[in-house]
TrEMBL record, chains A, B:
Protein name as it appears in the record: NAD(P)-dependent oxidoreductase
EC annotation from Swiss-Prot or TrEMBL: 1.1.-.-
Ranges for domain 3-hydroxyisobutyrate dehydrogenase-like NAD-binding: 167-285
A GO MF label: oxidoreductase activity
Keyword Oxidoreductase among UniProt keywords: yes
Record has Nucleotide-binding as a keyword: no
Residues in 6-phosphogluconate dehydrogenase NADP-binding domain copies: 3-162
Protein's organism: Rhizobium helianthi
Similarity field: Belongs to the HIBADH-related family.
Highest taxon of source: Bacteria
UniProt entry keywords in alphabetical sequence: NAD, Oxidoreductase
Cited Pfam families: NAD_binding_11, NAD_binding_2
Length: 291, 291
């Protein structure tokens, strides 16, 4: 049992912090920009509430952050009243935000200056994974820090991997998002084509899903895509934020990602259609917009 | 046990005809444009050899074709000396070629004019699937004809599905190829990016392959892609032929396939690199061509 702070109680952070309290049995102090959510969390899980990130983090052995983007992350860590202004030496900052590898390295350095450890630890598995405590957590950091952090992270995870030095968790998450971009657009085009061709999409998936065309997205999303339902939680706005991080990192490391860049533009079309909160499989809605 | 003719003993047809003989126990007469291959088949499996498609097919209850493209298919079916010039009434023509839905309908009509049945039955599973007799067979045709053909097809298949009326097998195969185009290009970009980012690709796949980014291609091709090995049998030239069929059918049915069209162009680049016989995962080699 450890003293834990959790900053950012969004659709992911809220249940993750809950698992740290209930499954992990830790002392949890939470902070959220909108106080009402933090109060709701405390009344559900019985931990304590900090008025600022710094106040939530001051006694913690492990400080988790799970916010929107690089700037949100800086505002709760390195800015005044951020967690790094109060964290005690030897404590570890674990960032669950999907952010840039650059900000991960920046935070690791800032943490190191305070005698603290840092792990970048973006997750995949979506809202359902967070609620069921079965997320995949992709970590970047040194082995010693990871060894201390892993047993705590386990409270909300099914798979926790150390991918390499600081930033490697974020870079792994980027690979994940690149794969998804290709799989989903391909699947969307296939379903669009199949419907126009008069095929029974269910029957097609039954026959082809175990072979070379198969994917998690095909297994888990073809029914809802075929029905035109796009409410599975991981929103187009968030995917565009992630792809923006990917494309900036690709520019930096000299990789060329033509399909990823194209699919990012397609998600822009979905936003223009009012689909900001639709899930990522709504690339099909874009193909069908002129039907 | 039935009388079977098999036309086209390529990397797929050769072992498929073998399974009809050995696993199915059928009387098989084969024809191949290059006679040496047909002779090799007969000396291995002990069936008989026809000098023309018509001669091979004349006594058969089931006539299989497995050739390169629409025109090859017409040359062994509706052209002089083609199988339809000799097939007896009540026999069934089963076409395993990946061809257009149009030629399937054309052949079904021609077969019907002779009192014969027709099933379009393109396969997936590649050379290994053909050799092990575990192909997926996507069929189009009427239920009665399918019911007669299925037990014979079973000799080389793990999964045989009736997808709808004539042409539906081909249309299903097209959906399959569209999905593959997206999955492989996305995976290629992810690996390209990951290598540039200094990640351990094996470790990344271990962590992300069961989640939303996962695919058959990721599981089965990431190692060879990471090693730059592109000799898995399903060649770029064949994929371009298939995508050409897909894009023409899409034009006909009014679906728009931007990613599929783009990946088709990318395969054109691979051809320019001398990769005509590389397998479909060589999209990665294209991304790395300027490294």
């Amino acid at each position: 049992m450890a003293k834990v702070a959790f900053i950012g109680l969004g659709v992911m952070g809220f249940p993750m912090a809950g698992h740290l309290r209930q499954k992990g049995g830790h002392d949890v102090v939470v902070y959220n920009r909108t106080t009402a959510k933090a109060e709701a969390w405390v009344s559900q899980f019985g931990g304590a509430l900090g008025k600022t990130p710094a106040e939530a983090a001051k006694d913690a052995d492990f400080v988790f952050t799970c916010v929107g983007n690089d700037d949100d992350l800086r505002s709760v860590t390195t800015c005044p009243d951020g967690v790094l202004s109060s964290m005690k030496a030897g404590a570890i900052l674990i960032d669950n935000t999907t952010a840039s590898a650059e900000v991960a390295r920046e935070l690791a350095e800032a943490a190191s200056g305070k005698g603290c450890g840092f792990i970048d630890a973006p997750v995949s598995g979506g809202q359902a994974g967070a609620e069921n405590g079965v997320l995949t957590v992709m970590c970047g950091g040194d082995e010693e820090t990871f060894a201390k952090a892993k047993p705590v992270i386990d409270a909300y995870a099914r798979m926790v991997g150390l991918m390499g030095p600081v930033g490697s968790g974020q870079l792994t998450k980027m690979m994940n998002q690149i794969c998804i971009a290709g799989v989903v657009q391909g699947l969307a085009e296939a379903i669009h084509f199949g419907k126009k061709a008069g095929l029974d999409i269910e029957k097609v998936v039954e026959v082809i899903s175990k072979g070379a065309a198969g994917s998690w997205q095909m297994e888990n999303r073809h029914k809802t895509m075929n029905a035109g339902t796009y409410d599975f939680g991981f929103a187009v706005d968030w995917m565009r934020k992630d792809l923006d991080i990917v494309l900036r990192e690709a520019k930096r490391n000299g990789s060329t990602l033509p399909l990823t860049a194209l699919v990012d533009q397609f998600y822009g079309d979905v936003q223009s259609m009012g689909g900001n909160r639709w899930d990522t499989s709504s690339l099909l809605a874009r193909l069908e917009r002129n039907k």
